[in-house]
Amino acid sequence: MRTGALERLKRHLRPGRVYRREDLLPWSQSIDRHLRALTVDGTLQKLRSGLYYSPRKFEFGEAPADEHELVKAFLKTDHFVVTSPNAYSQLGLGTTQLYNKRVVYNQKRHGTFLLGNRMVTFERRMNVPRRVSPEFLLVDLVNELGELAEDRDVVLSRVRKKAKQMNPTKLARAVSLYGKYSTQKKFQEMLQPAARHLSAREKRSGLLDH
Question: Does the pTM exceed 0.85?
Answer without folding.
Answer: no
